[in-house]
Amino acid sequence: MTKPDPRDLLGIRDLLNEEEREIADTVRTFVRKEVADHAGQWFEDATFPKHLVGQLGEMGLLGMHLTGYGCAGTSATAYGLACLELEAGDSGLRSFVSVQGSLAMFPIWKYGSDEQKDRWLPSMARGEAIGCFGLTEPDRGSDPGDMRTFAKRDGGDWILNGSKMWITNGTLADVAVVWARTDEGVRGFVVPTDTPGFTAREIKHKLSLRMSATAELSFDDLRLPGDAVLPGVTGLKGPLSCLSEARFGILFGALGAARTCYESALDYASTREQFGRPIGGFQLTQQKLVGMAMELNKGMLLAVHLGRRKDAGDLPPELVSFGKLNNVRTAIDIARTARTILAANGISLEYPVLRHANNLESVLTYEGTEEIHTLVLGQLLTGQSAYR
Ligand code: FAD
Q1: Do 212 and 328 sit in the same domain of this protein?
Q2: From 365, 373, 379, mutation site for ligand 1 pocket: most ligand atoms within 8 A of C-beta
Q3: N or C of the chain: less Cβ packing under 10 Å?
Q4: ipTM > 0.95, yes or no
Q5: Closest-CA residue to 299 (of 235, 256, 261)
Q6: Which domain holds residue 25?
């Protein structure tokens, strides 16, 4: 009988196939080498490590579960594991990869014309072109169906007016996938960010996801050719399907942040001494560590289960809500508990725990808030919608 490993109590690694383990190990090594020691500084400076984007592309992490156009075409579970390892470094890094792959490349790949795919996907997969996804508006977050950004036809062209808020990668992007109301319903537009009338302003003073570039986008009589629209989808199901893809990455990713916090607390508890003994010897510290380990492992089982269902083509959006709701909540609880074990040191950027806890505040809110995912599940259980 094998003695359980405190860092993988249930032996989740044994549930993964060789390719999945290899991908997770490669990304973990990359994060340890290139990210772990710098993440605190990037957070403090509010700087996104743009120099890593080429490497993310070389490793096949950009649009990695898409096929063709230079994308790696891995399983969804492998994509989730890569998100987990990236987020073990910082949620900002995983956010970059989620937005690039699931929110900007995915809609072009799924709903775009051949020309749009050929123009953008290969360079986005290499990390030479960066994408962002504009759905949220200053006054419309949880209810995107009430968006005000509008595109109207002008001869063969489109004219876009409005603004989008809280847009990850907004100031870095070469291309924005912008969702706008039209006379035919909500449509997606592929907007090169050098188009006259496009402005991206960085959102400053964030206390969370500081490493991530977040922007407000404005469109002022922005003229687009007729073929800038995504031809394959009309209506809110377009952006919602992208969000479902990104949420899947998050339900794995958040556990990476949680794992770093748990391991940090475990290490700290074995070396920090008070009252003449390691704090890990106190019952209350052990209770915290055991609770963290149990929740982390249960979250991992859930993530792998949902990954297998996605790979089998049978993952309804409500179960993605289940995973995102549970695992982000789990992760934030673990991060905050880890902070209490590190006590005063826990509030410092010298240690990762409060940085992760703060980042997870954004993760709890974006891609559907905790409340909205609860109500999505509530509707599934009762047949009644409580949110509209
Ligand atoms: P609101 O919708 O105003 O909600 C306020 C509160 O009311 C919340 O607690 C909410 O749960 C609750 N609430 C709202 N409606 C109901 C209801 N019917 N029943 C019960 N409670 C309700 N958006 C993008 O489009 N692209 C991005 O790249 C992107 N990146 C982001 C990055 C960061 C760092 C952050 C913080 C946000 C990002 N977002 C992005 C926006 C994000 O998706 C929204 O913030 C989110 O959808 C919530 O919208 P809101 O902040 O306007 O809150």
Answers
A1: no
A2: 365
A3: N
A4: yes
A5: 256
A6: 12-126
